[in-house]
Design brief:
Blueprint lengths: L4 E6 L7 H16 L2 E5 L4 H5 L2 E4 L26 E4 L5 E4 L2 H10 L4 E6 L1 H12 L4 E5 L15 H22 L2 E6 L6 H9 L4 E3 L7 H13 L5 E6 L28 H12 L4 E5 L11 H19 L5 E6 L2 E6 L15 H8 L10
Parallel strand pairs: 1-2, 1-6, 6-7, 7-12, 8-10, 8-11, 9-10
Antiparallel strand pairs: 2-3, 4-5, 12-13
Helix pairs in contact: 1-9, 5-6
The structure holds 6-O-phosphono-beta-D-fructofuranose (F6P).
């Protein structure tokens, strides 16, 4: 088979590199197959509303280095369970998936490229089961997707977090303070661990290992006794204390759809440390700075490779799949193998071993 007209949407939280994918899909479809490309706006919401824009080689010519997504995105709004607050305050849940399939058909598309993380790809898989020819492209700064070595957006986020850590190192050292950097990573600590290693953090706390505050204190004291009163702590937003709960943002209540809002564990940790140690503690929450801005070269190349490969897969009719990085190649994996699964850092991974072997404290007794 070949392709004449394809659609693309970006879903979930944005990240650097989305536009590189949109550009690659558009160029490969046009140049290799003479196909038309339709951009669906606002993630799956565009499939409900029918809001689209035609993408051409010309209209995408300047977007390779641009952060965000020119199509817009949302990390709420699952068409299968769309929750809305009614005027009388009640919550109504509607299944708009039939309407979305109808829009897809009316658009006369041969394929739908769904660019997203675990939640978006899960929805993509549900649409595939409803007969929509879907091909997934993996995206998320969290790097927590199964079956791909890396997701694009991750390396850029790691670099941003590492740069922040470099700056905290100098101010922390000057003032003899404990500096805490809170980064994203709700279920997995990939950003915290990689950026923490890259930026020379002394303590790294990740969702995969519940931290024991006494271990953290011991490490800080050990450094103080050894003549280094300053310490740098990297903490993922989803990290939690032994037996404790994930720290949620105060405004987290009331969100109708999408992921729960995390944030604040860095401040929580600061309070715990200040109670026990006579050192000043300061917390920085890096937040969405990790998601915005221009992709680094790794993410530009990865996004471009995934986009171009996905177009070839569409032309071969290989639907219900996702383009993935299996170093050094891009390969196709089945969407059904990813649905609803999150890739956390394995506790016996080399990365964890590496961190502990060079004396980084992960909030537990080193193994
Ligand atoms: O999933 C990506 C992510 O950046 C998470 O790390 C973070 O918890 C979440 O999105 C934040 O989402 P929002 O943009 O809704 O604040």
């Amino acid at each position: 088979m070949t392709i004449k007209r394809v659609g693309i949407l970006t879903g979930g939280g944005d990240c650097s590199g989305l536009n590189a994918v949109i550009r690659a899909v558009t160029r490969a479809a046009a140049i290799q197959y003479g196909a038309q490309v339709i951009g669906i706006e606002g993630g799956f919401e565009g499939l409900i509303s029918g809001q689209t824009q035609e993408l051409t080689v010309k209209s995408t010519k300047d977007i390779l280095t641009l952060g965000g997504t020119i199509l817009g995105t949302t990390n709420k709004g699952n068409p299968f369970q769309y929750r809305e607050r009614m005027e009388d305050g009640t919550i109504k849940t509607t299944d708009y998936s039939g309407k979305a399939v109808e829009t897809f058909k009316n658009l006369n598309l041969d394929c739908l490229f769904v660019v997203g993380g675990e939640g978006t790809l899960e929805i993509g898989y549900q649409f595939f089961k409803k007969g929509v020819p879907v091909i997934g492209i993996p995206k998320t700064i969290d790097n927590d997707l199964e079956r791909t070595d890396y997701t694009f957006g991750f390396q850029t986020a790691v670099q941003v977090a590492c740069d922040a850590l470099d700056r905290l190192q100098t101010t922390g050292r000057s003032h003899d303070r404990v500096m805490i950097l809170e980064v994203m990573g709700r279920n997995a600590g990939w950003i915290a661990l990689e950026a923490g290693i890259a930026g020379g953090a002394h303590i790294i706390l990740i969702p995969e290992i519940e931290y024991d505050i006494q271990n953290v204190i011991r490490k800080i004291m050990l450094r103080k006794k050894g003549g280094s009163p300053f310490s740098i702590i990297m903490i993922a937003e989803g990290a939690r204390e032994k037996g404790g709960a994930t720290v949620k943002a105060e405004e987290a209540q009331g969100r109708l759809q999408g992921v729960e809002k995390l944030g604040g564990v860095g401040f929580h940790l600061a309070k715990q440390i200040e109670k026990q140690i006579d050192l000043e503690v300061r917390t920085t929450v890096l937040g969405h700075i990790q998601r915005g801005g221009s992709p680094n070269s790794f993410d530009r190349v990865l996004g471009t490779r995934l986009g171009s490969f996905a177009v070839d897969a569409a032309a071969q009719g290989k639907f219900g799949t996702m383009a993935a990085l299996k170093t050094p190649d891009i390969v196709l994996v089945d969407l059904k193998d990813l649905a609803g699964r999150v890739r956390t850092i394995s506790l016996d991974s080399q990365l964890i071993r590496c961190a502990e072997s060079i004396g980084i404290n992960l909030g537990r007794e080193a193994m």
